[in-house]
Design a protein that fits this description.
Length: about 140
């Protein structure tokens, strides 16, 4: 099982098309491949963000408020965390925990729960007739 998980991570890492996003870093900005970022955390009391990637951790001077709108795949789930939606594996609404494909488990706050639910409706709801015309619901 761990070998299969490792194989999936390497496949995502090496065969995905790069998406370069310019992240603010104080008065400058740096160009980072979004496909390598798993999640973003912030240090309390500072304006520093930590970009968690597969092979490294990058520290930048910015806030989640300025970073989240940069790309549609970045979703804020907590006052201290934002995730790359491409690495989302599981969402447990009752426990308020998101599990990423790398195995990391992160908390979801009440404030961002509705946004997370909007992005993860495919976890909890069956497809509707509008999404799939061949779908027949037995109501």
């Amino acid at each position: 099982m761990p070998l299969k998980k490792l194989s999936t991570i390497f496949t995502k890492f090496f065969y995905t098309k790069p998406i370069f996003v310019r992240f603010p870093n104080g008065t400058r900005s740096i160009l980072i491949d979004l496909t390598h970022i798993i999640y973003i955390s912030c240090e309390k009391g500072t304006h520093h963000l930590i970009l968690h990637e597969h092979d490294r951790i990058t520290k930048i001077r910015a806030t989640l408020k300025t970073v989240v709108p940069l790309h549609k795949d970045i979703c804020q789930i907590h006052s201290s965390f934002a995730i790359n939606l491409n690495y989302l594996k599981d969402y447990q609404p009752k426990k308020k925990i998101i599990t990423l494909s790398t195995g990391n488990a992160l908390p979801v706050s009440r404030r961002y729960a509705s946004e997370v639910r909007m992005h993860t409706t495919w976890f909890t709801q069956p497809p509707s007739k509008d999404e799939n015309p061949n779908f027949k619901r037995n109501d």
